[in-house]
Hints:
This protein is of the alpha/beta class. It has a single domain (3-261), classed as 3-Layer(aba) Sandwich (Aminopeptidase). Helix content is 50%, strand content 15%. It contains nine helices and six strands; from the N terminus they run H-H-E-H-E-H-E-E-H-H-E-H-E-H-H. The chain has helices at 3-25, 30-35, 64-82, 99-108, 142-152, 168-200, 213-216, 233-239, 242-261, and strands at residues 42-47, 86-89, 113-120, 130-135, 204-210, 222-229. The protein has a six-stranded mixed beta sheet with strand order 2-1-3-6-4-5, sandwiched between helices. Helix 3 links the parallel strand 1 (42-47) and strand 2 (86-89). Helix 1 crosses helix 6. It is globular. It starts with a helix and ends with a helix. 46% of the residues are buried.
Amino acid sequence: MKISRIHRTxxxxxxxxxxxxxxxxxxxxxxxxxxxxxxxxxxxxDPGHGGMETGAKGKFGNLxxxxxxxxxxxxxxxxxRNMGFEVVLTRDKDVDVxxxxxxxxxxxxxxxxxxxxxxxxxxQKKAAGSETFFLSLNATDEETxxxxxxxxxxxxxxxxxxxxxxxxxxxxxxxxxxxxxxxQSSRLAELxxxxxxAMLGTRNRGIKQAPFKILTGVACPAILVEAAFISNPAExxxxxxxxxxxxxxxxxxxxxxxxxxxxx
Length: 264
C-alpha cells in the first residue's frame, strides 16, 4: 500500500468517526427530519475566518474576518430579539478557530441550524453579488469549486476535504450523516438568497452546492452565505458600512423566519 493511500485512509477513518459522533448528537430520519427545523432550541452562527486567518482582503484594506464578525453579531442580536431559541457564535472576537472546532461547537450544542457567514473574493474585480451555498461533494461549477478550495485551505492545505478521494468508507458514512439534511439546507439557502436579493439590490448569483469543509461535519441543516465581494471595490465599501451589514443580517433573518414557518 502506498504512503498516500495510508494517509488518505487514516484521514477518512478520522472523518468517519467524527461524522458518526455528529450523527449521534443530532439523529434524524423520516418524519423527524421534516419537522426538526420547527423544534430547534439552538442555532449556531459562524463568522468566517478570524485571528491569523484573515480571509479575503479588499482594495481599501478591509478584512473578511472583521466584516463577517460584525454581520454575525448583528444577526445574533436580531434572532435573539425575535425568536425563542439560543444563538451561539463560533467566535465572538478576533480569534483563530479551526474548521473542526466550529463544527464541534454546533454538534456539542446540539444545534438545529448552522449558518456560516463569509465575504466573497475573486480574481476578477468586477465579480459582484451575493450567493448562498449548501453542501455537496461536487461543486456546481468551476468557480464554485475554486471558492470551496480557497475556503477549505485557508488555514492549512492538509485540512481540505478531497472530493476525489476513493475512500469508500468515508463516502458511505458522509452520506449517512448528511443526506437527511440536504433538502432542508437547500430550502434554507433558497429562502435566504431570495431575501438577500430583495434587500441588498446586489446581483443574484443564486444558490449553489459546494464541498465546503465547514459544512461537512455539521449534523443539522447548514448553509454558507457569501454576502458580497470584498474583492470588488464598490461592494467592499458597502460591506464596511454598518448599515449594509445590518441589511445583510436582516435579510438572513427574514430568510430564516420564512424557513421556520414554511412546511417541508
